[in-house]
Design goal:
By secondary structure, the protein is mainly beta. It has three helices and 33 strands. A nine-stranded parallel beta sheet has the order 1-3-6-9-12-23-26-29-32. Strands 2-5-8-11-22-25-28-31 form an eight-stranded parallel beta sheet, with no helix packed on it. The N and C termini lie far apart (82 Å).
């Protein structure tokens, strides 16, 4: 009889806990609907938006607003989203949660955060073109990882050629694909995919220089793939320079025979999630004048957290302004578990990724191209326990002298006067 009573009590208790859980979870509505509920059209210009604590909002279509403050939650709803979403804002302040994709469910459509100029002074207000995470805010961005792996050339890319072959260490040229696939079909095997890379037509790639001139890096757009060799890529224009792509075997009296690999790296810059400086109204000036070269930036303050995987940053960094870098952990302290991985940073006006008084973060497998100043930057020298693994940097440039932050950024005043770095 006692056991029967216990069984009878456990059923309503389980239901009660389920009801409490469901009622405690905020009902998620679209950003468009959220704005309509506040009696403000989603397309209104100069609109300030605050997502209140306890509110959960999803974004499924392009939206143009002014300053966005997130105390609650803003999620990307890929299932119901347009193929490309552009969120244009003058600033985004995250004190709640901004989440797009997850570790196990990446965001594969196009989501662009485009940060517009404003009347704010970037030297005194971090919100100028800023995505700022503070308080106990959290930023989770997980894009498609297919473009994240970078490679070396399989053979030399000659000046004048519009095709290259990469060495991915796995794939080999495939002969008689149709015949093999017919055979596989009869044996109920999966057909061979001739583009196992995951790269696709329209992606932007960069090939590193291999001569003594660092300006000989080149960008291309992929126009196609060879049907019999998925490692061969067709480019939108002929190369202007030679890019070395041969393995060398050397002999040394000290260590004997060894391999010397000086081949050019090839990296894909395109990602499904993009953070950029907005140029819909006017291009960002790249001259040596006040206010020029001020792009977007991401800043993660102490107490907050950020998890970035397979995100593209472009037209970023604010030249000559301290602490305005493409991505920046700022006085975060022990940030164990946080990371920037598999991402690309290009067309940066000031550095790439900065770790400032922050410990135990991971920078893994990122690509930094066409940037000014130091790329992967430990700001004070007391940043310990951080893992910086297999990151690629191509085409570091010196900033204008009027926008130098450190002597080591300067061609004229660094210890290696006459060159950078």
């Amino acid at each position: 009889m006692k056991n029967q009573n216990l069984t009878f009590i456990s059923i309503p208790l389980f239901l009660l806990l389920a009801i409490i859980y469901l009622n405690s979870s905020p009902t998620r509505i679209s950003l468009k609907k959220y704005l309509e509920n506040n009696r403000t059209p989603a397309s209104a210009k100069g609109l300030d938006v605050t997502i209140a604590a306890g509110d959960s909002v999803s974004i499924t279509e392009s939206t143009n607003i002014n300053h966005l403050v997130i105390h609650g939650e803003l999620h990307c709803d890929e299932e119901n989203a347009d193929n490309e979403i552009i969120l244009r804002a003058k600033s985004i302040s995250v004190m709640g949660l901004l989440k797009c994709g997850s570790l196990t469910n990446t965001y594969d459509k196009k989501f662009i955060i485009s940060l517009k100029p404003s009347s704010l002074d970037p030297k005194s207000d971090h919100r100028y073109r800023g995505l700022v995470v503070m308080g106990r805010g959290q930023l989770d961005l997980f894009g498609n990882k297919k473009n994240s792996r970078w490679f070396k050339l399989k053979s030399t890319l000659q000046a004048g050629s519009n095709e290259l072959v990469i060495d991915n260490g796995l794939m080999r040229p495939i002969r008689n694909i149709k015949k093999i696939n017919r055979l596989n079909k009869s044996r109920r095997r999966r057909p061979i995919n001739t583009r196992l890379l995951g790269w696709k037509v329209g992606d932007e790639i960069v090939v590193a220089p291999t001569a003594y001139n660092p300006s000989e890096s080149e960008k291309f757009i992929i126009t196609g793939f060879d049907k019999s060799n998925p490692n061969k890529i067709y480019l939108d224009h002929p190369a202007l320079y030679n890019h070395f792509g041969e393995k060398q075997v050397m002999n040394s009296n000290a260590i004997g025979r060894f391999n010397l690999d000086e081949r050019a790296e090839v990296a894909n810059l395109t990602r499904s999630i993009v953070i950029r400086g907005d140029e819909s109204q006017s291009p960002i000036s790249e001259t040596d004048t006040p206010g020029a070269e001020w792009g977007a930036h991401v800043m993660v303050h102490g107490g907050s957290s950020s998890y970035i995987d397979s995100v593209e940053f472009t037209k970023v960094g604010q030249a000559g302004v301290m602490a305005r870098y493409p991505f920046h952990w700022h006085y975060t302290g022990d940030a164990s578990g946080q990371f920037v991985r598999n991402s690309s940073i290009h067309n940066s006006y000031q550095r790439c990724i900065t770790i400032h008084r922050t410990q135990n973060v991971d920078l893994i497998n990122n690509v930094c191209f066409d940037f000014k100043g130091h790329g992967y930057f430990l700001e004070d020298g007391n940043e310990t326990g951080n893992r910086i693994i297999r990151n690629l940097a191509i085409s570091a440039k010196a900033p204008y002298e009027s926008k130098v932050l450190l002597r080591s950024d300067s061609i004229q005043h660094s210890e290696t006067a006459g060159r950078f770095p």
